[in-house]
Amino acid sequence: MSLIDRYFPDLTPRQREQFAAMPDLYREWNARINVVSRKDIDRIEEHHILHSLAIARTGLIVPGETVLDVGCGGGFPGIPLAVFYPDVQFTLVDSIGKKIRVVQEIATALGLDNVRAEHSRVEQLDGGRSRFDWVVSRAVTDLRTFVGWTWGRTIYGIIYLKGGDLDEEIAAAGRRTEQLPVSTWFDGEFFQTKKVLVLPKK
Predict the structure, then answer these.
(1) Rg of the chain over all Cα atoms, to the nearest angstrom
(2) For residue 156, what are the CA distances in angstroms to 32, 135, 177?
(3) What is the SS3 assignment for 141-161?
(4) Single pTM value for the model
């Protein structure tokens, strides 16, 4: 049984198929364009796919919403979340074009029609006009900087994956923030210091 099946036993057959295909797709693309560190590629299911799905454990995102993944790199957390939430529209943004190419290719290979991948800085996306129900990301910068980039882009708030002692960073950001330990949901040493930070706007 895969880690994804273990923690998410109610997936549809289509979702199981997509999650099962994901590690090999990333290994194949990573050999051409390095989007996951070499030491991590063999742990991609735990360190990247399952970690991304910690956001799903919050229960905050619901069908029909829109989500912006800022600084998505090779597609985390956006690609796993797009598989998990087929009725949510995802926009994945990164300033590095080759990473967005990987996102586009993997989304196509997985048959994800709810993913739009854009080579852009978040400040410049859609001329700065578009707003999304949620903004998600995984440790692209310090929280205060990230809030500055994205607070005006979201209706409901930010869901941010980050690890370590975050109290000072949260204080500097100046926004009400809930810290949810990923170890509440997933076993293993890797998750012991990982958090989901929720910054609600309401």
Answers:
(1) 16
(2) 37, 8, 13
(3) CCHHHHHHHHHHHEEEEEEEE
(4) 0.97
